[in-house]
Every structure is written in structure tokens, then in C-alpha cells.
Amino acid sequence: MTRHRPKGKGKGKKGTAVEDDRNNDLLDKASFKNERFFAYYKAQKIVPDSEWEDFLDALRRPLPTTFRVAGSREIANVLNATIRDVHVPSLSNATFEDQLIPPPVQIPWYPDGLAWQFNVPKKVLRKQPEFKKFHSFLVFETEVGNVSRQEGVSMIPPLFLDVEPHHKVMDMCAAPGSKTAQILEALHAQDTITSSSIPSGLLVANDSDNKRTHLLIHQSARLPSPALMVTNLDASNYPSIKIPGPRGPKNLAFDRILCDVPCSGDGTLRKNIGIWRTWGPNDGNGLHSLQVRILVRAMRLLNYEPGARIVYSTCSLNPVENEAVVAAALAQNSEFELVDVSDRYPELVRRPGLTDWRPTTDRGCTTTFESYEEFMASSKVDASAKGKLTKGHWPPEESVVQTLNLPYCMRIYPHLQDSGGFFVAVLERKQRPPKSTTAKRAATDEALPESKKARLDEDATVVDAAESKEGSPMEQEPEEPAKTPRAGKESSQSNGSFKEQPYTFISPTDPILTTCIEKLHINPETFPMSNVLVRNPEGDAARVLYICNDIVKSIILNNSYERLRLTAAGTKIFAKQEGGKGTEPQFRVLGEGLPVVLPYIDEKTIVDADHRSLRTLVESYYPLCESLTQPFRKEIEDRSTGSHVIRFHKGTSEVATLTHDLVLPIWKSNVSLTLMIDKKAKSALSLRLFGTDITTFGKEREAAQKKEPSVVVVSADSLPEEAEQVEADAEAVIEES
Ligand SMILES: C[S@@+](CC[C@H](N)C(=O)[O-])C[C@H]1O[C@@H](n2cnc3c(N)ncnc32)[C@H](O)[C@@H]1O
């Protein structure tokens, strides 16, 4: 949702007082009312009268904690099995103050049981030992990205996108990135436990808010992908992306597009309880036009292939932001239709979209209007308010409504399955637009300057020509946006100069790259040497080397990075490591890059290591080689200094049980070894393997916690919500850089 949380969530800030109460588990239900909200939604008949009280009761209850086991499929399944087979049984008979506390349960509609819900008061988490242990497991796994605390309803839209590894996907309003992560996981469905595939598909994750794109990048780094690009543009005006075609450059068309648009967010009332106080009908009214423009732009960017689809979603209950947007976009693009997905995810309880609604600008919501004409004629509405709504805020005429299948939209209400409120619509193209429509739409679009109309006509010709020759026009020429973006904070194109560095491909014979390849025994014949890039205009392999897949490469080579406001592309694989005194700096493989590089490394050069040595490497930062167990010790002592890859085999020893092989990067100095993974990842690994955090970082943290309990780095009684945690982490990252 787009109600950006107040920075720092500071006490005393507007809208936080009630939230603070709620955090203490003290529910003051008297505060949870808003007569405007009641009057408005009763008038919209969003639920039958008989359900109204249940609906309100649910809205007033705290939202259960939900989380998703994230990451590529195999890893997620392994971790999920740990929750199901180890944690849940240990929590099954947990009691607190003589009450049986229910263990977490799997959300029935989420595939493979990877999403969970639990509803446990904080005091239980703090004091009940089994829950406390489970909670710190979640906190650590969240920190390293294996668990994503995400609202249950927010997990729905990516499911209906049906993404496959070869799809070209656009996430138009992506930050902070919880749905982006789900899409990435689908693109990487073929990853194995230890190695990442290089999908042939693409994910362009976009957000118009520059700061939020950095949250998105930070968040997406948890599933590093050579198929990812992040852009910072106004989605309603997203430019066409050029790629080479058989007859010269053509525009890239997407197979799947997610429009999780900015919205008033009143479906999140259960967690953003400040909305109880501030809610008004104009919150949604003001967003309608931007939402329509984003959806219409998505329609123009979508592929013509059968099955290409758009998912439109909001966390708002307001029909003005939901059905009205879908209806208005369909009115402009009659070749699209809503898809009946009622047979998908049958355990997800939902209600059909509305066919009738009554907008208003009246802050008190005492009067709502049946039609635009009635609204415009009303003496109760002043002239400035009349300018705020358009005919599109209302349902189309009855005869048109019948043809739109609005009931195919999905409304999720809090009382149906103890969730937040949400809206999802799935749209597909039912037919190709007739040749003339594309050109006609462009020519009659009065909002466009003459120069653009001419270009659209040209583009239409290009598409038609390409289609008739190729038969199956995978990439068609989308039209230019119908309108220029609204000025204001949502539009970043006008935010002055773009400050990010460009990406430059380096030569496959670049000496730094070839040295990395040689030292790590990577096969240069199969490794995509031509897809390695750096982040500076000179193409200087000074610090970090990245890798991307072919489609990302093609986009970078054929488009101006400034026009796309390209904020991130591909994933890091190698980085410079300063040597000790008197030694030359060398490049090393990065933890996040290893899964991508691993399939190309000569198996024989990966050093086998034992569980005891793993414990030694986890326990201290720079253990001496002589502290390692034979034969691993000899094997590693015989290696040159620098970057190496080691493998711990799955199985049980007296030290640990590994449910799957573990492949990790290390750095060898003259006499010691270092495990080259992030200290939080090391803590999570330690908890997973040894049931306790034995790392130096963990011990320091525990000592600090004992000394000053209020300044703990990670507290066991707070499982950070994804967006919040990512924001905090990313702010630190942004500040550091
Ligand atoms: C509902 S939130 C998206 C949540 C995100 N999909 C997720 O699951 O984490 C809407 C996002 O739209 C962005 N936004 C607002 N106006 C936009 C525009 N014109 N173009 C692109 N993004 C926009 C906001 O910055 C916000 O991050």
C-alpha cells in the first residue's frame, strides 16, 4: 500500500498514538470507529448487512502474524520442513498462564504450505521458552531473507500472475518489494539447493519513489538474480524498452505485468490503525486517475501472446480504486477482458467484484451519488469538489456493466479468513486489436502533441508489419502513454538529474575477469563471459563485477540508462579483496554470486570439508588453518592464498545435522581461513545447525543485551515486518554509502 509509514514511527507523531496502545496489546475498541467510513461502505454495500458487524469486528482485531518461507523452491521446502517437523511439534503443547497456546498453522490456500499464520500475544513470545526460541529462529531467518514477514493477502497477486522462468515480467509499482521477491522466486523455480539458474526471463521492478527503489534493491538482493532490473520511473508513463528485432529495434512487450498500485490502503486498517482516525472518501478519489493511467499503460506494454496477463491489485476496499479503475481501463481498451479465476486457489475465500457503487466527495459521507450526472447537478456539491471526480469514478451504464464481468474481480474481506482487506483483478487480451484501432486511438488522442501522434502511427505500422511476417508477434510496439504524468511527488521523471552510475560490459578477455575465472576453475567455454559488467562508464573492473542474463544485456545495450532511470541490474559475482601487508589485492567470489557461478566451477576443485571444521569457521572470524580437522586442513593448506569454494556434505555427525549440502565461499590467508558470508547469515546458519548462535557477532550481541537490554540489535520479541525491516536495513546501507 502506498500510505508511507511515518519515518521512524516516532512517538508523538501524528497517527501513532493508537498504534502504540495496540503494540502493548491494549485494545481500545472505542477508538476503532469512523462514522464516515461506516456510512461510505454501508452505502457501497461491500458486504451483506448480515455480515456488517462481523466485518467490523474483524477490522478491529489485531492482524495475525503471517510469514512466508521465501527463497528458491528447494531451499524454501527444506526450511519449511524444519518449521513443520521441528518447531511446530515443539510448540504444540505449549501453555502460558495455564492456557494452551496454538502453534503456527499453514495458510491453506498458499502453494506447498509455504505461508504460515500465528496469533500469539507478545508476552507469550517473550516469556514462553519454546515460542521464544521459534521467534528468534524467525527473526534470524527473516534477516537473511529466508523468511519474509508479509501480510497474507499481499501474497495473493503474484500467485495469479503464474510466472514461469522464461517470462518477461514487469512489476510496475514494486517497492518495497515483497511481491517482487515472489516473482523472482517463480523466475528461479529451477534453482537447486546450492546453485542458481540463469533464467531466460526478465523482471523489471519499477517504482517512482527513488528512495523506495533502494529498499527494493536491498530486498531483492536476498534472491540475487541475473534476470532483474530495477528502474525508477512513473509507471503511468513508462517508456517503451528497445530490443533488437529481425528488422531493427523493436519494443519489448511483457508476458506478465503486476500493477500493485498506490492506494488509500484502508484494507490495512487492522495493522495501520491510524487510518481509523484519518479515513475519508477523498483518499481514494484522488488516486483513481493515476491508478487508471498505470493500468492502461500496463495494457499497452503487454505481449500479444495468448495467456499474457496483467494482475491489478490494491489493499483498498474502495470500489473507486478497484472496480471503477478496472472498468475505466477496459472502456479504453476493449480488447481486454477480466478473467474468471474462481477455480484457482479454491481455499482462498473471496467475494465477487461489485457492479454498483456510489462515489462522493462529501467528507462526512452522508450523501453519496448514484450517477455522475446526479453528482454534477447537486446543489450540495461545490464547484471545486465537482472538479475532483470524473465520470470514470462511477460504474459505467448498466448495459456496459453487464459486459465487463466485474464479478470476476476478487474482494478479500478481513472476516472471511482473519486477514487484511484486498482487491485483485486478472486481465487478459481477448483478441488482437484490429489494425486500425491502434492507429485510430493514437490519432484521436487529444492529449498528445502532434509530434507524438505521428510517432504512434509509425509505431503501429512497425507492429503490424512485424506481426504479419512473424505470425506470432512476441514483441509488439506498445503505444506511447495517453497522458503525461501528473506532477507531484509520485513522478520521478521530473526529479532533476539521474545520479546512478551506468553499467558497462567488460571484454570476455579482460585480465581481471580471466584471472577470476582461472583462479576459481570456472569453465570459460560455458560461463557467460560476455555478460559480465561493471558499474562505471569506463568499463573499469576496479571493484565489483556483475552478471546479467541475455535479455537484461540486450536492454542495457539498446537503451539509455538515464531514460530508463536504471537503478540496478543483474547481480554481483566477484569483488576486490584487499590483501594483507605486502600482498596484491585479489578478486573473490561473493556469497550472493556463488550460486550463479557454482554450476560453472570444476567440481574437482571444490574442497570437501567436515562438520567440525564448519563449526570452527562459524565460531570465529579468522580461525587458524591448524585449528581445522584433517584431511580438510591439509587440503586447504596446500591451496594458494585467495578465494576458494568449500562444500559440507549433508548428513549427521556428532557436531551437526545438515539436511542438504552446503557450499560456501572462503578466503584463505597465509595461516587462517575466513567464511565469506555476512555476519547475520552466519548467525542464522549457526542457529539452524547448532540450535544456538555461536558466532563472535552473536556472542557480542548477547553480551550487549545482558549489559543493556534496551539496546539489543535484534530483539527476540520483535519479528520485523518485511517492509519495516528492509527499510531500516536499507537506510543504514544508504547512509553507509
Ligand atoms: C502498494 S505499494 C507497492 C507495494 C509492493 N508491490 C510490494 O508488494 O512490496 C505502491 C508503490 O507505488 C509507488 N508509486 C506511487 N506512484 C507511482 C507511480 N506513478 N509509478 C510507479 N510507482 C508509483 C509507491 O512509491 C509505492 O512504493
UniProtKB/TrEMBL annotation:
SUPFAM superfamilies attached to this UniProt entry: S-adenosyl-L-methionine-dependent methyltransferases
Q: Which residue positions does the secretion signal occupy?
A: none
Report the Gene3D superfamilies cross-referenced here: Vaccinia Virus protein VP39
Which InterPro entries does the annotation name?
A: MeTrfase_RsmB-F_NOP2_cat, MeTrfase_RsmB-F_NOP2_dom, Pre-PUA_NSUN2, PUA_NSUN2, RCMT, RCMT_NCL1, RsmB/NOL1/NOP2-like_CS, SAM-dependent_MTases_sf
Q: Where are the transmembrane segments?
A: none
Give yes or no: UniProt keyword Transport: no
Comp. bias regions, Basic residues = 1-14
**Region annotation Disordered: residue ranges?**
1-23, 433-504
Name the GO cellular-component terms. Answer: cytoplasm; nucleus
MF terms (GO), sorted A to Z: tRNA (cytidine-5-)-methyltransferase activity; tRNA binding
Per its UniProt entry, which superkingdom is the organism in? Eukaryota
Q: Keywords of this protein's UniProt record, alphabetized?
A: Methyltransferase, Nucleus, RNA-binding, S-adenosyl-L-methionine, Transferase, tRNA processing, tRNA-binding
Any one GO biological process: tRNA methylation
Per its UniProt record, what PANTHER family does this chain match?
NCL1 YEAST -RELATED NOL1/NOP2/FMU SUN DOMAIN-CONTAINING, RNA CYTOSINE-C(5)-METHYLTRANSFERASE NSUN2-RELATED
Q: Which family does it belong to?
A: Belongs to the class I-like SAM-binding methyltransferase superfamily. RsmB/NOP family.
Please report the name of this protein according to its UniProt entry.
Cytosine-5--methyltransferase
